[in-house]
Design goal:
The complex is a heterodimer of chains A (254) and B (430). Chain A has 254 residues and is an alpha/beta fold. Helices cover 28% and strands 26% of the residues of chain A. Chain A has a single domain, classed as HUPs (Rossmann fold, 3-Layer(aba) Sandwich), CATH 3.40.50.620. In chain A, strands 9-8-7-10-6-1-4-5-11 form a nine-stranded mixed beta sheet, with helices on both faces. Chain A has a two-stranded antiparallel sheet with strand order 2-3. The radius of gyration of chain A is 21 Å and the shape is globular. Chain A starts with a strand and ends with a helix. Chain B is of the alpha+beta class. Chain B has a domain of 109 residues: Butyryl-CoA Dehydrogenase, subunit A, domain 2 (Beta Barrel), CATH 2.40.110.10. Helices cover 49% and strands 13% of the residues of chain B. Chain B is built from 15 helices and nine strands. In chain B, helix 1 runs antiparallel to helix 2 and helix 11 packs parallel to helix 13. The chains are: A alpha/beta (254), B alpha+beta (430). The interface between A and B is large, with 37 and 37 residues. Bound molecules: flavin-adenine dinucleotide (2 copies). One flavin-adenine dinucleotide (FAD) binds next to strand 1, strand 3 and helix 15 of chain B.
Amino acid sequence: MSGRVLVGVKRVIDYAVKIRVKPDHSGVVTEGVKHSMNPFCEIAVEEAVKMKEKKLIKEVVAVSCGPQQVQETIRTALAMGADRGIHVEVSAKEYESLGPLQVSKIMAALARKEEAQLVILGKQAIDGDCNQTGQMTAALLDWPQGTFASEVTLEGGHVKVVREIDGGLETIKITTPAVLTADLRLNTPRYATLPNIMKAKKKKIANMKPADLGVELASKLEVLRVDEPPQRQAGVKVESVDDLVGKLKEAGRI
Amino acid sequence: MAVRAAGQIAGICHLCRSSTLGSFRTLCRNVSSSKHTPSNAPETPVDHLIYTPEHFALKESIKKIIDQEINPHVDQWESEGKFPAHKVFKILGNAGILGVNKPVEYGGLGLDFSYSVAVSEELGNIRCGGIPMAIGVQTDMATPALARFGSDELKKEFLRPSILGDKVACLGVSEVGAGSDVSSIMTKAVRKGEEYVINGGKMWTTNGTQADWMCLLANTSDGPPHRNKSLICLPMSLPGVHIARQIDKMGMRSSDTAEVFFDDVRVPSKNVIGQEGMGFTYQMLQFQEERLWAVANTLTTMDLIIQETIDYTRQRKIFKMPVLHHQTVHFRLAELQTEVELLRSLLHRATALFIRGNDVTKLASMAKLKAGRLARELGDSCLQFWGGMGFTNDVLVSRFYRDSRLISIGGGADEVMLGIICKYMDTLPK
Ligand SMILES: Cc1cc2nc3c(=O)[nH]c(=O)nc-3n(C[C@H](O)[C@H](O)[C@H](O)COP(=O)(O)OP(=O)(O)OC[C@H]3O[C@@H](n4cnc5c(N)ncnc54)[C@H](O)[C@@H]3O)c2cc1C
Ligand SMILES: Cc1cc2nc3c(=O)[nH]c(=O)nc-3n(C[C@H](O)[C@H](O)[C@H](O)COP(=O)(O)OP(=O)(O)OC[C@H]3O[C@@H](n4cnc5c(N)ncnc54)[C@H](O)[C@@H]3O)c2cc1C
């Protein structure tokens, strides 16, 4: 039991909130909207904390990149059992264009600095649905990756990962240090208990800037426009199977 | 039905684990036709009057438990007339929610009362009144006197397991002949050597059919009515404790309410809480907390009812326009939300004063009175805007209409609150 696990925790608009697009189509409305930890990140934290409870690793470090408010998300991770936090401060303005590549650079730099044995991230965040940060982090570090994990077994210098792939499961064995991304079935995240919420208050959150890690935030991507998904059209009722077949033929489906 | 779905979103999210590619958010949306959109900006940790970021973290954790472990089952428990108190309390006990302001030595967290208020507010997200009430009985009605005045031995036997969620507690104060007038209770505990022998009966006992122990108020002497009563920890498994019946009620249906009889029940005299004869005084001491707790609990539900009424009337079209677009409808809802905010301000002000050590009996009684009155008005007004749907049992508003009626009766009726307020205003005829 010597390793350290770095877990990424992203603050996103709460899953139960209906997303509204800003009138000028530059993005979505975030002000006055309930935020919480990305559900896939919760699963990543849970997995890391479980490893620590099984004494397979020594320390869990929760990392979040963003403005001041992301500290709330780090506190949630600390209340779930992470040992300490790192807040990589990115101004609200810069945060708007912070994408998977920039975050991966930060995660990779931190993984080296902290000599992490594992980096565990959510497979995607429910805001951008990018599904890239884990893969990019592994590439930048030139470490093996176990993405879409639904079962993880850490044994010495190896980790066995059961991956959710189209049409089934794939089991791989990779060496550590490695990058993992958590899928929905990996575990059921615990509730932060009140005693642990109070304890989390005393845990340390280190503050740093991307520049401290030698990371340049410039992005080559530009968001042109954000739109609501098209409204689903009302369906039609058909009287009989023949009608149905007729309609399908009409629509050119069969 | 749509209403029920909203509360289940979170529960379902953790269950739909079939997709590897689909967006988590779309997944959640697809299983629920109804969206939950708080129209008001939520209260945030920044500069809150009484809540710190820890209060908010606690609320968030409770919300998850409610969405995943409680709300998906509420309709079933409502129809069965009982919720599984042991199961639900164990979940809450594990999360540390049943003893926020109880001593650390007995499994509590030793935090101030503002945390209890935060818990109570959050429990208002449960989609019925019965379960929060049952929790309130456990945390803020049956146990405060024990925590303050009970012996170490009693606290180990009754308080600790109640905080951990291993034992269900009930409060035996009201009787058939004594509700508002607690001083006239008839149940007697007669001292015989190292034991009390108890005879009599209790009425309206919440959790009564499931409880492991009762915090019992009984006459232990023939002295003056305010100094002859004692609180006794009574195990419900003792011979002579009879659950006469479960009372059939118009509301609070998932909370079991019992009528209990005592027939020569023998309990060790060491089970008396604090000093003999002080029971009435001890019980009165916790009134402020009890009342503020009840107010906090109804606030969140009132917010929810207004919001669901907005959502429903916005999509319900009559005379070619949404019901919500009638000025009488949106103005009325604005009026009600204003009153809810006023009540919330009073609650937070009273709580802030209380945790600084002030007597807030007057403010707490005013808040309780207003909560009862407002809940009745709000339930009635909102139900009206749902038309025939409001008259069905499929919607939260009709359940609220039935459940919240109790606020004006239980835990001190409106008239009792008015009497107390008048005392403070010095207007009560002597
Ligand atoms: C669902 C439910 C759960 C309950 N749970 C518990 C429990 O767990 N433990 C427990 O001990 N009790 C419990 N109670 C009892 C509750 O506290 C009493 O119902 C309440 O105190 C009122 O007493 P009562 O029903 O005897 O009404 P009464 O005392 O008969 O009062 C009837 C009415 O008289 C009027 N009134 C009362 N006082 C005055 C006054 N001073 N001036 C003018 N009018 C007045 C009011 O309108 C009042 O509603 C519960 C009750 C219910 C319905
Ligand atoms: C138990 C029960 C039995 C019934 N029995 C029968 C029956 O036997 N036969 C039958 O045909 N129908 C029956 N009904 C239907 C009943 O007549 C309708 O529920 C009633 O007409 C209201 O219509 P609605 O439910 O569609 O409400 P909606 O038309 O949707 O109205 C909802 C609410 O909108 C508000 N509203 C409506 N109009 C206005 C306005 N102009 N300005 C401002 N606000 C407005 C009101 O608050 C109203 O309550 C029954 C309903 C119930 C609940």
